[in-house]
Amino acid sequence: AQSVTQLGSHVSVSEGALVLLRCNYSSSVPPYLFWYVQYPNQGLQLLLKYTTGATLVKGINGFEAEFKKSETSFHLTKPSAHMSDAAEYFCAVRSTMNTGNQFYFGTGTSLTVIP
Amino acid sequence: DAGVIQSPRHEVTEMGQEVTLRCKPISGHDYLFWYRQTMMRGLELLIYFNNNVPIDDSGMPEDRFSAKMPNASFSTLKIQPSEPRDSAVYFCASSSTTGRSYEQYFGPGTRLTVT
Fold it and tell me: What is the C-alpha separation between A94 and A7, in angstroms, rounded?
């Protein structure tokens, strides 16, 4: 069985400060990993993904995440927060096995950016 | 591409009425997912289809919920009869396993209010 844990349902940072949103997964084999962002009254939008290759992946809006197999983590970072980054962020995993295309989402982290 | 299209965007109905939510996936995508999002329960997978065939409907809350995908470009989620606890935002998402992209693309959602 697969699961995703996002530590911290609410994170507040000052504008210009580092953003760090944590995601840990539980899976018998390393899965495919995704981060999505949801702005108010909108659907989820893909920020970045890790499937194979380089473990540090870059996404849109200056975000990046690093897959660390030994720590079963896929934390999302951004060097300098902008007001427009305020949103809900979801981490998700998908099995690499050919067992369907289901995603398992975390419970989300609400990011507040303080001016 | 227009992305995933959902209609209506907002639906207000009275308890006991039938509600039908509609989704048009991205052309060429072979998977379609229905999710429900509430403050209390977060993002829940209700059902998903592969090539128009339901694969996993274990997330459907009860027999009042049903989903169909009569062709590759259209799906419906029906609630009959509706209850106030069904109030939520319902998202449709689609994905393609061609080219090993895997990521799910979400529609803007339908906000359902049952009074």
Answer: 19
Contact A93/A27 with Cβ under 8 angstroms? yes
B57 touches A: beta carbon within 8 Å: no
Q: What is the percent of chain A with per-residue pLDDT over 70, rounded to a whole number? A: 96
Query: Do B43 and A105 meet the contact criterion of CB atoms below 8 Å apart?
Result: yes
Burial status of residue A115 (CB atoms within 10 A of its CB: 0-12, 13-18, 19 or more): exposed
Nearest chain A residue to B42 by CA distance is A107
Whether the predicted pLDDT of A101 surpasses 80: no
Residue B41 and residue B62: Cα distance in Å, rounded? 16
Question: For residues B31 and B23, is the Cβ–Cβ distance under 8 A?
Answer: no
Cα distance between residue A6 and residue A8, in whole Å: 6
Could you tell me the pLDDT band of residue A29, with boundaries at 50, 70 and 90? confident
- Considering only CA atoms, which of B90, B33, B58 is closest in space to residue A103? B33
Give the distance, in angstroms, between the CA of residue A32 and the centroid of all CA atoms in the same chain. 12
CA distance B64 to chain A (A): 23
d(CA B32, CA B73): 10
The C-alpha atoms of residue A114 and residue A13 are separated, in whole angstroms, by: 6
- Encode pLDDT of B27-72 as tens digits: 999 999 999 999 888 899 999 999 999 999 999 988 999 999 999 9
